[in-house]
Amino acid sequence: MIITVAFEVKNYVNVMECWPIKKGDITFFLEREDDVLKRVCIAFSGVGIEHAPSFEESSTEGEAPLINIRGAGYAALARKNIMNWQAVVSGQQIDNLDYDNYELRFNAENIDEDSIIHIKSFKTNSDKALNSTCDFEQIGRAFCVGPIADDRIESTSHYREGRIAFEAHRFVDSYNNMFLFLETRYCDGKTKTAQQVELLLKEPIFCESLRHTLVEFVNERTRPGEKKFDFLKITDGIRDQIKTLVMVRGSLRHHSLKSPFRWDPNKQDEYESAARFLGAVVGHIVITESLADIYAPETLKSFREISISTGFETKIRLDTRRLDKKRTLSLNMSYPTTVISSRLCATVLRNAIKACANDGQLADTVRFEGTNTKSGLDVTSLEFGIWAYTPDRSIALDKPSTLIECEFEHFREGIITKANFTVPFNGNKLTIPDVWELVTFSFDHIERREPATRIMKLRLIMNDSTMSLVTYRVGSQVRN
Fold first, then answer.
1. In sequence order, which residues have a C-beta less than 8 Å from that of residue 411 and are 6 or more positions away?
2. Which residue, 57, 132, 64, 62, is CA-closest to 407?
3. Strand partners, 369
4. Domain limits at 158?
5. Is the dihedral of CA 147, 149, 150, 151 positive or negative?
6. Predicted TM-score (pTM) of this structure
7. Which residues share a beta bridge with 107?
8. 104 and 238 co-located in one domain
9. Which of 123-127, 135-139, 310-314 has the lowest mean pLDDT?
10. Residue 136 included in any domain
11. How confident is the model at residue 101 (pLDDT cuts 50, 70, 90)?
12. In this structure, is residue 36 part of a structural domain?
């Protein structure tokens, strides 16, 4: 089999001719359009067919099969060869190559291989990995936020660059940028290890984020065969944890060919765990600040006034259903948007829960139905399982600590995928108010982990059964 790795050229380079240059099993060639260089390519021949893309059944029932693309090692080798060529040719011509997004091509060398290779080409695209879907309400509210400090602008730029580098698998660049965020915010120009450790220890926001993130990473479930997180130990003191972060920064900030411990730019996967963890620590800080600004009352007021005055609003009526024959709520809501999105549905749900709680109705409210006032179409709904309609309105639990599974479907990059996590619950029985708290916690947890998540359906179930506690879903007009 032949594996070809193609890197796009981002600047204008005119090349009048080109032909393949073959050295052993490696072939170097260029791809042009009208004498303009478009791609620089490296092809590896004689590659074993076991490196061809393959399909693997998911370990989770109901999930789509997984696609395994096994050419990453050849992509790294191609990058090393191209960098070698680029270093030599730069004295004559600068070629700005896109190393973050490359194309892998798989071609058979004989008839037998042709029937095995089901995927002929695969192109990485790091741009689509960065929350590519965002509602205008968040974008518009962000513009309504007043001026922020310059140091926040500068430090957040490092976070942004770190996220881009991580999605492109440039994990060393990602880690360094995330640490530059910490240096800009908290280290006051100090660069020595002991100084930075002491300064970071004095920052409660950073320390809280470190503790919170470490607990999540240690407790996260891994797929079969996936390496468990071991970059930091939760049993170590926070001083030692911070020192480890600083020491890794020191080793990655410098590079000497004389040092046997130098990091290899072609083996950045070794630092994926460290980059992912530090990115989550910094991300927790940035997301917390962002949510505080975007959802601040003064920001909402400003955005709403602009929305209403210009006619860009949507009105929704939400009706509640109670088990007791008592007064229900019919809420007329107005939102500064013209699009019925899943984010809007989640906001409607949160506001309805808050209104029921303020009116003392959550103890027996078991259904929400939201409709678009203008079209009359369903917007969102939530309904408790059959257990809530029993005389006890509760579920007796065999043990004082139970895991509740949150299963949700979310929309991303044109498709709807399924995800899940567990929530611990302590108590001898589960009541309707308890489930309302679990619903709120689940939405909060998903938003903290990924603020741009578009939840299409969410269901809470007992971890050891298929019984549904509550089901939330958006209307068909949102799906379409």
1. 133, 342, 454, 456
2. 62
3. 319, 381
4. 146-294
5. negative
6. 0.65
7. 2
8. no
9. 123-127
10. no
11. confident
12. yes
